[in-house]
Amino acid sequence: MYELTVPPVSTSAEDDAAETEKLPADEALNVIRTCWVMGETITEAARKSTRSTSYVHKVYQRLRDQGSDPQATGHDRVREAVAV
Questions:
Q1: What are the φ/ψ torsions at residue 40 (nearest 5 degrees)?
Q2: CB of 42 closer than 8 Å to CB of 56
Q3: For residues 79 and 41, what is the distance between their CA atoms, to the nearest angstrom?
Q4: Which of 6, 26, 69, 84 registers the highest number of CB atoms within 10 A of its CB?
């Protein structure tokens, strides 16, 4: 029989604590909005905003429901010339 060996920890607990520090709520919401406008995935927005994917999904849904979708509002469309 072989003796059980455990590999050393690859990161310290202090590094983990620094990475999991949450942004303040207003900053996190701004990050999520920016990610939504830039077309980033929910997972990426969750990572950047230090929030859960379920929370980001709710915010994305709210933004869609408010009609804030850049494609839906047409602000990125080219205006057609109007004959006078």
A1: -80, 155
A2: yes
A3: 29
A4: 69
